[in-house]
Specification:
- The strands form 4 sheets. The chain has a 9-stranded mixed beta sheet, with helices on one face.
- It is α+β, with helices and mostly antiparallel strands and 627 residues long.
- Strand 4 and strand 5 form a beta hairpin.
- Helix 9 runs antiparallel to helix 10 and helix 20 packs across helix 21.
- The chain folds into 4 domains: 216 residues, Histidine kinase-like ATPase, C-terminal domain (Heat Shock Protein 90, 2-Layer Sandwich); 138 residues, Ribosomal Protein S5, domain 2; 99 residues, Rossmann fold (3-Layer(aba) Sandwich), CATH 3.40.50; 126 residues, Heat shock protein 90, C-terminal domain (Four Helix Bundle (Hemerythrin (Met), subunit A)), CATH 1.20.120.790.
- The chain starts with a strand and ends with a helix.
Length: 627
């Protein structure tokens, strides 16, 4: 087969353009990325050879080799791992398959994007080679296959691939260095890079010297198998960068060894920045599973619940068979016990951080709180523990609020934890539903994560205090003691008198007649102090925000009629009440009644039921006021 020239995928071409036409600090990360990829290739061979020993082909001494040729100005990095065939070379080096990469590449073009080393976060660290190389050649032979393949590119938009010869399996990458990159031809420079970034790699990284002697540059032992006292903070960070393909520093590190009924080691990290796939619908774990230091899989969903999927790191078990299959992993009691132990350890560490490092924990919650709240919804066993860890925005306080803080500030006569769900904090703060609560100084938790609508339905209470939405049923404000103030009071004006008795009853009856089945009921509001009206759900009805979300996602067909509450102190309601007892009031106030309902719908984020009719009614009422 003759060599074939192919174009890079669009995102790859854009990425390579950024790499080759910009100047960046930390160019040495190219070596870290290539060594990390070589290590992964060797891990994959170890795993595959458990069921097909022929893949070893007489070569079980896995390692990464580095060779410098100063005369030719090249660096060669070779591994004897799993290798790649033609299709894999095209897929791995010519395209970027991971979701979100288009947005990532666009972000790199921003003026604030100073460090292209972030490409490693997307599993495409190979392209960092073009920071120092004007041409890259890759020769690879897949384990178990006879044909080798040669891939070459100068990083300007295309690559060439064709057949070649290679004596053994694995991959060799030849870098033709650019002018001005001669520092990487020095053995001491490579020694320093490997020691800094790749000392933790669990196989030898060997430098082949000019006299054909070989020098192992790294410790070549599994970091998680060492005692904590033997591992430095910098080594932990380097391993996190390797295992997570991330470039932030870990927010928390958990390194432990369990012996006894269960024998396993773990080295886990909580990132300080959310991974880009955090809210991928698949909700996959990124933890790596090893059995007696032999790599098994980097996608073991059985190791942690989905609501801990932000964890990165390694779990090494001595109690699983080396030939463990996917089906065995899904139903293995050993993994179930390890999962329970990991969950306890992580929650314990979070509790410690929340108690001792409140400011740092607030940053963690900002990044990962929405994911942990999935556990409140899904995990009955850990629900109360997660509720203790949860933090919320509040109508009365800046910053994050715990449920314990909330309960400590509850007013005399208050027996519930009040919540309101919506799309934004600022929008919720302006909601008329909060007026009566704010007037009495009653705190309301402001919930804007999509999962909030679901965990509230499954978590009835916290420490005996039920959760109660302020948009559902009666507000129970009469029983709560507090200094009642409206916005009008704050302006220094007298509180307006309320319309009551027969006049209010007549208006309520008129509104019920005009609005008919558009509403479930019309009643006087105990929660409004300044707005004319609002909509609330019945005690047995679904929360309004949740119903709106379900309708938007086609999971709830019909809109449920709501209760319209009116404020008897509002000038508009008082004026309508004065007219309600007059002859022909139903016809005279029909437009006003329908506008009241549309106004309440708009405040709740719903469009008017009939936008055209709404516009006509509004124009008619406005005209009557100025003509």
């Amino acid at each position: 087969m003759t060599d074939q020239t192919m174009q890079f995928q669009a995102e790859v071409a854009r990425l390579l353009h950024i790499v080759t036409h910009s100047l960046y600090s930390q160019k040495e990360i190219f070596l870290r990325e290539l060594i990390s990829n070589a290590s992964d290739a060797c891990d994959k061979l170890r795993f595959a050879a458990q069921t097909d020993s022929g893949l070893w082909d007489g070569d079980s001494d896995l390692k990464v080799m580095l060779r410098i040729d100063k005369a030719a100005r090249t660096i060669t990095l070779t591994d004897n791992g799993i290798g790649m065939n033609r299709d894999e070379l095209i897929a791995n080096l010519g395209t970027i398959a991971r979701s979100g990469t288009g947005e990532f590449v666009a972000g790199l073009q921003d003026d604030n994007a100073k460090d292209v080393s972030l490409i490693g976060q997307f599993g495409v660290g190979f392209y960092s080679a073009f920071m120092v190389a004007g041409k890259v050649e890759v020769t690879s032979r897949r384990a178990g296959e006879a044909q080798a393949w040669h891939w070459v590119s100068d990083g300007t938009g295309s690559f060439t691939i064709g057949e070649t010869d290679k004596p053994g399996r694995g991959t060799s990458i030849l870098l033709h260095l650019r002018e001005g990159e001669d520092e990487f031809l020095e053995a001491d420079r490579l020694r320093g890079i490997v020691k800094t970034y790749s000392d933790h790699i669990a196989l030898p990284v060997v430098l082949q010297l000019e006299d054909d002697k070989e020098e192992t540059l790294n410790a070549a032992s599994a970091l998680w198998s060492r005692a904590k006292s033997e591992v430095t903070e910098e080594q932990y960070k380097a391993f996190y960068h390797h295992v997570a393909h991330a470039f932030d520093d870990p927010w928390a590190t958990l390194h432990a060894r369990a012996e006894g009924k269960l024998d396993y080691s773990l080295l886990l990290f909580v990132p300080s920045q959310p991974p880009r796939d955090l809210f991928d619908p698949a909700r996959k774990s990124a933890l790596r599973l090893y059995v007696r230091r032999i790599f098994i899989t980097d996608r073991c969903d059985e190791l942690v619940p989905a609501w801990l999927r932000f964890l990165r790191g390694v779990v090494d078990s001595a109690d699983l068979p080396l030939n463990v299959s996917r089906e065995m992993l899904q139903n293995n009691p050993v993994l179930t016990r390890i999962r329970q132990a990991i969950t306890r350890r992580v929650l314990g560490e979070l509790e410690r951080k929340a108690a001792n490092e409140a400011e740092s924990y607030a940053d963690f919650w900002q990044n990962f709180g929405a994911v942990l709240k999935e556990g409140i919804y899904e995990d009955f066993e850990h629900r109360q523990q997660l509720l203790k860890l949860a933090r919320f925005r509040s109508s009365e306080h800046d910053g994050w609020v715990s449920l314990a803080d909330y309960i400590a500030r509850m007013k005399p006569g208050q027996n519930a934890i009040y919540t309101i769900n919506g799309d934004s904090i600022e929008g919720l703060k302006r909601s008329p539903q909060l007026e009566g609560f704010r007037a009495k100084g009653v705190e309301v938790l402001l919930l804007t994560d999509a999962v909030d609508d679901f965990w509230l339905a499954s978590a009835p209470d916290f420490e005996g205090k039920p959760f109660r939405s302020v948009t559902r049923g009666g507000a129970d404000l009469d029983a709560i003691q507090g200094e009642e103030k409206s916005e009008t009071d704050k302006a220094g004006e007298d509180k307006p008198e309320a319309v009551e008795g027969a006049a209010l009853g007549t208006l309520v009856a008129l509104l019920k007649t005009v609005l008919g089945e558009r509403v479930r009921d019309v009643r006087e509001s105990k929660r409004l102090t300044d707005s004319a009206c609002c909509l609330v759900a019945g005690d047995g009805d679904m929360d309004m925000h949740l119903e709106r979300l379900l309708r938007l996602n086609k999971q709830f067909a019909q809109e449920t009629p709501r209760i319209l509450e009116i404020n008897p102190r509002h000038p508009l309601i008082k004026g309508m009440a004065e007219r309600a007892g007059q002859s022909g009031a139903a016809d005279a106030l029909r437009d006003n009644a329908l506008l009241l309902l549309d106004q309440a719908r708009i405040v709740e984020g719903e469009p008017p039921a009939d936008p055209q009719a709404f516009a006509q009614r509004l124009a008619k009422v406005m005209a009557a006021g100025i003509i």
